[in-house]
Amino acid sequence: MSHQDRPSLSDRDSAGNFRDGFGIDGFGREEYEFAPGPDLDDDYDGLPARSRPTFKWVLIRLGWVGLAATLSLGSAGIVAATGRSPENDSRPELTYTADLALSGRLDAGVRDLAQLNDHVVVLGRMARSVLADLSQVNQVGLSGDYQDGDTAVLEIRSGAAALTARLECRPWPSTRDAELAATYSHDMIDRWHAVCAALTSVDPLASDWAAMENSANVAMSVAHDINDHDQNAKAALQQATQGRYPEALAQLQTASASLANAQDIAAKLSKVGDVSTLTEWLSRTTTMDGALALLWQTMIDSKGRITVQVSAALKAVNDAKALLPDNNSVLQVVLYELAGNLTSDGISIEVAKGQLATALSDLTGGSVVGQ
Q1: 205-241 helix and 276-301 helix, angle to the nearest 10 degrees
Q2: Which one of 61, 142, 187, 250 has the fewest beta carbons within 10 angstroms of its own beta carbon?
Q3: CA distances from 196 to 39, 63, 201, 221 (A)
Q4: What pTM value is reported for the model?
């Protein structure tokens, strides 16, 4: 447009707008024109004539600003919905319902796991009590330990089996996480796996307790054999002191039979552990029994007279007696030796108890409900 073609001040209409020259209505190509609506002017009837075109222009600008803001907000929403970080593939909007249901099941499972832990604590206490009662050769105490421990094991086995079935804690290969990810969030899957893993810590408890009972029974059997031997040997000595050598020999044979049972057990135990103290003690006691039997038989043959044979037999008895302990303290050593397997089983029970307690602490944030 040349200088001559530009509208002059005289070309303005009465409203001060360049309608006929360079006004809004005549700007640009026809399809981009901004024609005012039919009622637009009517809305300004109350305004002075000079203010109407200015107000009109303000409204048009505001319309453009509003449109731009709307588009901006819409774009932001699209970006928020589609711009999730590739490192965080959680989809709470898709897994929320399933996570909520599973969370309730796992919360109940953790409470049951805490009750299961109470029975494991009892079993650990019974394991320590078995060791204490065995060292004192307390058969009555051991019987009570067995009963309480067996009850705890039954509770542990039934509780673990029920919880395993309820939470579907089947074998958990690495592929299972991927399968469950179609339904649950990764955090919920990790918690589920942790609960199931905690359950596996109680798996060896039944066999460990059974092994501990068996070992304790073996140790007590040896202790009983030794006690029976000592009682019969003591009775035999009393009979020999009274000159009743035939009766003394018969009583000593009964004592030796008990000792033979203990030796058989020691021979079997020596294949799986160190029972050298027991073996040596039984060997020395057997030598003593043999020396006494020879002495008493010699006294029978000599009709009570002191002969060279009797003197030699008496010396053999004194030599054998010198090798025996003065008191029963060696029995404590033998029982401690026999308790080697029991200690191992007891440690295994304590380890399982610690693993379960640690898992519960992790699952509950440090407070174990039900303990």
Answers
A1: 20
A2: 61
A3: 73, 61, 9, 40
A4: 0.63
Q: In residues, how long is the chain?
A: 371
Per-residue pLDDT of the chain (371 residues; tens, 9 = 90+): 444 444 444 444 444 443 444 344 443 444 434 445 444 444 445 555 555 555 555 555 555 555 455 545 444 444 444 444 444 445 565 777 777 877 777 787 788 888 888 999 999 999 999 988 887 888 899 999 999 999 999 999 999 898 888 888 877 777 777 777 777 888 888 888 888 888 888 888 999 999 889 888 988 888 889 889 999 999 999 999 999 999 999 999 999 999 999 999 888 888 777 888 889 999 999 999 999 999 999 999 999 899 999 999 999 999 999 998 877 666 777 777 777 767 788 888 888 888 888 888 877 765 444 44
DSSP SS3 for 88? coil
Q: Are 183 and 94 in contact (CB under 8 A)?
A: no
